[in-house]
Specification:
Radius of gyration: 22 Å
Largest sheet: 2 strands, antiparallel
Number of helices: 5
Order of helices and strands: HHHEEHH
Strand order of the largest sheet: 1-2
Number of strands: 2
Strand content: 5-15%
Mean pLDDT: 82
Length: about 140
């Protein structure tokens, strides 16, 4: 096992429900495992392996899907979540890597452009309304 395995309580508990829901780290592992299975990806990491791997990366408290946060990515985005096939990567890098070099059709580009223009117009309208409200209240 890992040199950090002493951080994990390996003693079995009789009440499985308490064991998972009473330990927030174990709950995060369970959610990760469940989400992987729902996406059709095999998840072979035990809680102890998952927890120790995260602790060894030094990014356990910087995990998340937001930009600048770290995720457990599979090498080449293939295979199971298992030791030897996982790496700690930034979430934004992990989510864009599968799409690198992919050509976008003219229709996809047009749809993306229209969506961006709509977001920009909505934001501009919100800012204009907020500015008008602030002027009404003398701010």
């Amino acid at each position: 096992m890992s040199r950090l395995s002493h951080l994990v309580n390996l003693e079995p508990r009789t009440d499985k429900r308490k064991q998972v829901f009473g330990n927030p780290d174990k709950r995060k592992w369970q959610l990760h495992r469940t989400n992987a299975r729902m996406r059709g990806i095999e998840f072979k990491l035990t809680f102890e392996e998952w927890f120790c791997w995260w602790m060894e990366t030094g990014h356990y408290h910087e995990r998340g899907r937001e930009v600048g946060k770290y995720v457990m990515g599979r090498k080449g985005d293939k295979g199971a979540y298992e030791l030897g096939n996982i790496e700690c990567v930034l979430a934004n890098v992990n989510s864009t890597a599968p799409h690198e070099g992919a050509a976008r059709s003219a229709e996809v580009k047009r749809n993306m452009s229209e969506a961006q223009k709509a977001r920009h117009a909505k934001r501009k309208k919100e800012l204009t309304e907020r500015s008008a409200e602030n002027q009404e209240y003398g701010q």
